[in-house]
TrEMBL record:
It comes from the Bacteria. It comes from Dialister micraerophilus DSM 19965. Its cofactor is pyridoxal 5'-phosphate. This is Histidinol-phosphate transaminase. SUPFAM superfamilies: PLP-dependent transferases. One of its GO terms (molecular function) is histidinol-phosphate transaminase activity. PROSITE patterns: AA_TRANSFER_CLASS_2.
Length: 366
């Protein structure tokens, strides 16, 4: 049988750093996927889980009025958001998939920095989008300069995609830079999508949610997977300007968040101290790891964000070298604009053994 698929998929190749066919050593230290290395709040007790799982025989309470209200309350310290301005889906990636179905097609021109979260650009390409990349320079430690992006912006660009903090470097973009970018984008009727998957590892006042009421073109994406340590609940959300609500209502994401998640997440949102404490411990561990680098180089990064880009001048597959010493990272080849000499590493809860192995493996890079 000849299967019919969407034309934009005929020559499409997915880009992702999720691989299912690898075999790892028994003593592996997992520093790959972006999570909170210190887990979730202790407020979510076994008793809470039991009550949550008592709901699994019922459909969730779509459109999730209680969960959206809880998110709005969480954000209320920095911005007044109506629950209707929040759209939920299966993790931040589910939010991106839904958003792309509303605003992306074969005529869409997107501009983004690179490297950045590759799955977003990959999904946009699956709908036929043309993507222009503004490369972060290795000689500048991959530091993001917002003026480079603004100067590359053309009237033909329909969408700007940027993640904050940047993935894979872990650097935080100041909110004043994003405000400046939003203003330029609005003048030419261009969306600004700010992906804050790692956004709970920075101060909430730096979030682009503070821009959505002022700028109708700004869309902010957040998740409960990383800072809140709830990756297994697969819940993400988008915060949008009120004028964009009718358009996202075309793809409302019906029943995409489980009843278990909608029961548990409001409890997690109340515990800000867990994230604050996690950021302090991450910063201490990340500094120790970065201080151990004698041959390897690191990107511009912020200490509270648990990821960082590492690289070497040597023509070597750095991912394979880390696997050899029992450390799992993310491959540079799975991001635009970097390659086998680069990896993304996530700081573990106890960094000492990881640091010990990194010190040893660096001898092969001399």
């Amino acid at each position: 049988m000849k299967y019919r698929i969407r034309k934009t998929l005929e020559n499409y190749k997915i880009t992702t750093y999720v691989h299912a066919d690898e075999v790892f050593p028994d003593n592996l230290i997992d520093c790959s996927l972006g999570i909170n290395p210190f887990g979730f709040t202790s407020e979510i007790t076994p008793e809470i889980f039991k009550k949550a799982f008592d709901t699994i025989s019922r459909y969730p309470d779509f459109p999730y009025p209680n969960l959206r209200k809880a998110i709005a309350e969480y954000l209320s310290d920095v911005v007044e958001i109506a629950p209707e301005q929040i759209a939920l889906n299966t993790g931040s990636m589910g939010v991106i998939w839904n958003l792309d179905r509303v605003i992306i097609d074969e005529s869409t021109n997107v501009i983004a920095v690179a490297p950045t979260f590759s799955s977003t650009l990959s999904d946009m390409r699956s709908f036929g989008a043309n993507i222009d990349l503004v490369l972060l320079k290795e000689e500048d430690d991959f530091k993001l300069n917002i003026d480079d992006l603004i100067n590359s912006l053309k009237p033909t660009h329909h969408v700007i995609y940027i993640d904050n903090p940047n993935n894979p470097t872990g650097q935080i973009i100041p909110i004043d830079d994003l405000r400046k970018l939003a203003g330029y984008a609005l003048k030419q009727n261009t969306y600004l999508i700010v992906d804050e998957a790692y956004g709970d590892f920075m101060d909430l006042s730096n979030s682009a949610v503070t821009l959505v009421n002022e700028f109708p073109n700004v869309i902010t994406i957040k998740t409960l997977s990383k800072g809140f340590g709830l990756a297994g609940l697969r819940t993400g959300y988008m915060v949008m300007n009120k004028n964009f609500i009718p358009y996202m209502s075309l793809y409302p994401g019906e029943m995409t968040v489980t009843g278990v998640a909608s029961y548990i997440i409001p409890l997690a949102l109340k515990d800000r101290k867990h994230i604050e404490d996690s950021c302090k411990k991450i910063a201490a561990n990340k500094k120790k790891l970065l201080d151990s680098l004698t041959v390897l180089k690191s990107s511009k990064t912020d200490l509270t964000v648990p990821i960082v880009l590492l690289y070497t001048d040597k023509d070597i597959n750095l991912y394979d070298l880390f696997i050899k010493y029992g450390i799992k990272s993310e491959r540079g080849e799975d991001f635009d604009a970097i390659g086998k000499r680069h990896i993304r590493i996530r700081v573990p809860a106890d960094p000492d053994e990881c640091i010990k192995r990194i010190k040893i493996l660096q001898s092969e890079l001399i």
